[in-house]
Here is the input.
Amino acid sequence: MTSQTIPVEPFDFIVFGGTGDLSERKLIPALYQRQRAGQFSEPTRIIGASRSKLSSEEFQAFARKAIDEHVQEDDRDQAEIDKFVARLSYVPVDAKSGDGFPELATAIGDSEAIRVFYLAVAPGIFGDIARNLHGCGLVTPFARIVVEKPIGRSQASARELNDAIGQVFGEHQIFRIDHYLGKETVQNLMALRFANNLFEPVWNSAHVDHVQITVGETVGLEDRVSYYDRAGALRDMMQNHILQLLCLMAMEPPASLDADAVRDEKLKVLRSLARINGNEAPKATVRGQYKAGASSGGAVKGYLEELGNDESQTETFVAIKAEIANWRWSGVPFYLRTGKRLAARVSEIVIEFKPIPHSIFGEAAGNISPNQLVIRLQPDEGVKQWIMIKDPGPGGMRLRHVSLDMSFADSFEARNPDAYERLIMDVVRGNQTLFMRRDEVEAAWAWIDPIIAAWEENHQPVQNYTAGTWGPSASVALIERDGRTWHESA
Ligand code: BG6
Here is the structure.
């Protein structure tokens, strides 16, 4: 089965930070793949803009290299690559001084095509770029702006950023990316919940015992020293990706897939999250930091050694017991955890249902484990439904816990597109369903801010864990205290 490609209208894609890491690893490969899939209409242009003084030819060479290194061999086609780089040009700009913006305006010309300004740059210059674009008359009704996280470090700083962009662009033109929303299985979560009648009746506190969301990574600090040490796992992963997963899992059914219908429901979840204050934080949250160990088969350094600073108290792991104080979820804990240098790269949502109320089977039948629905986001995308069955064969009645396994990779032939491919095309189409609205981002911070304040107030230390494990023992205690256990993800 192959998916259908519907071409989008011609567009101009202007990427600030055009020669940066995101552009190289994600944006250029994603745009190339969309062209290859036949999704572009002509004339579509891509303009790189950043402080480096490159010529258009040098930017084209940069793009060729990005495709060579980040698109798998089977998908690289020389004629297609030539056609792709022919649409690329480059203009050096300086967001602070405004130098280069008039030249950018000249390069864009008076085209009335859809115009996407993609800000793959540090948030400190979002406002400057927006102001300069406006100053040069580049913000037409067909313009959209795309911003990457981090959108602030707190609710107050998120507001400042949103205000700065909002002075120039209307909310319907602002696309705040959370790339987790572009992942295939994340959208499948919506299909699973709202295109089936099976789950909705049991999707509530009467039937669900608890929910677990794990986003585990095996990578460490990578080359992001200055950003990561100021952010930490709570700001880097929990405030955005994990809370977005929680919203899709927990929200009420929206009336339609319309952007505001979905975002209204997600917002209600964020606003229903029970605040974790200073007294509760030590019991409901765990902060961890990895020390030397082994990961992906090799010895790896600890965080502090990688960082070259033995004082840092930045958390590379966080686990939280969250509660959603609303009618549907009252009393159902949501155990959330994420970390670097964990035992496996795996992201999944586990919904554990309540035990059966009464067993008609004798002791010889064995334990009756509760049903679980495991939604695996990556790798090996798929859904597993764990159920009890009778152990086959004659003899007594013995029961067994087995999974109905639906691995998407095995079931469909279609290539699994990178999240950025879908999200960029959604920007061009003007579809904001998979992008965060201003009030959502600020509501997420409103839940995160008191946790950070509590950590600071309590001087809650980071607890060490060995690289290549599932985090500090306190994370195990967080869930086992409640008589539950983390799902074995690997
Ligand atoms: C980013 C974080 O948003 O997501 C990174 O800043 C993290 O720290 C990355 O590694 C994980 O994304 P993915 O798609 O590899 O799960």
